[in-house]
Design a protein that fits this description.
- The protein is mainly beta.
- It has one domain: Alpha-Beta Plaits.
- It is built from three helices and 14 strands.
- The strands form three sheets. Strands 1, 4, 5, 8, 9 and 10 form a six-stranded antiparallel β-sheet that branches. Strands 2-3-7-6 form a four-stranded mixed β-sheet, with no helix packed on it.
- The longest helix is centred in the first third of the chain and has 9 residues, at 32-40.
- Pfam families: Cas_Csc1.
- This is CRISPR-associated protein Csc1.
Length: 252
């Protein structure tokens, strides 16, 4: 079963996709792994404040032995696609970082490396602005594995709030069940962003635009070959996606 989720930002969302000097820029797409943690943290996924033990310096989202792994969602048959921006705007904010002695000597005005009449410990964050809207899709093999808000029979009640990004920004989600989708096989165009690492091995990725962002770059406007869903609004989505599908195929 498939659900369409429309997201509305009620806070500025910031994550440092690119760092250019003092400018920290947020990509306009929302990564599906980040959305998965925001939607299923606590129910299926752990998001420890601090990694400990032998894996502390080796974060890995796809290794089932790691405590912050996405593997539990694969076991339950749930998958979240990246979010497509429908309407978005940016807001640039200037921030000043605190000068603390444990990682560096504080700089005074006019000091070496700070020969300007303003502090050097500052930066600008290019954030996704309040009111921006997005769309994503959630796939589940069993409705009973989904959160209560998504199991509601009335589409008006399929709504919730999540927090996302560096500032834990507040985002409203309104979901609806998709009916009338058909399946097909062959070459198709997917205009919705995709995570290439999550595509089934049977899906061939031929032509695409690359969206460079950590931890795994996404693709958009992709031409693919394989099995797919065609939704009532003519959106095509590949069938068989799960977290790290190609990573696990290569590792085995």
């Amino acid at each position: 079963m498939l659900y369409q989720c429309d997201l509305t930002l009620h806070d500025n969302v910031f994550f440092a996709t690119r760092e250019m000097g003092t400018l920290f820029e947020t990509e306009k797409y929302l990564h599906n792994w980040a959305l998965s943690y925001a939607l299923f943290e606590g129910q299926y996924l752990n998001r420890p404040y601090r990694l400990q033990g032998e894996y502390a310096q080796k974060p890995n989202y796809l290794d089932s032995s790691h405590e912050q792994s996405l593997h539990p969602l694969n076991e339950t048959g749930i998958y979240v696609f990246p979010a497509q921006p429908l309407q978005w705007a940016y807001q640039v904010n200037t921030f000043k970082a605190a000068q603390v002695n444990y990682y560096g000597k504080s700089k005074q005005f006019g000091d070496k490396g700070a020969d300007r009449n303003y502090p050097i410990n500052f930066g600008r964050a290019k954030e996704l602005a309040v009111g921006s809207t997005y769309r994503t899709y959630i796939m589940a093999k069993d409705q009973a594995t989904l959160p209560d808000w998504l199991q509601q029979k009335d589409d008006d009640k399929r709504r919730t709030w999540i927090r996302l990004g560096k500032w834990a920004a507040k985002i409203h989600i309104q979901a609806k069940s998709i009916a009338g989708e058909t399946t097909g096989s062959g070459t198709f165009i997917c205009r919705h962003p995709l995570n290439p690492l999550d595509l089934a091995v049977s899906i061939r990725l031929m032509v695409y635009n690359r969206i460079v962002m950590p931890p795994v770059s996404l693709v958009s406007q992709a031409q693919l070959e394989g099995e797919y869903w065609r939704l009532p609004d003519e959106t095509c989505l590949p069938i068989g996606c799960y977290y790290g599908a190609r990573y696990m195929a290569n590792a085995s």
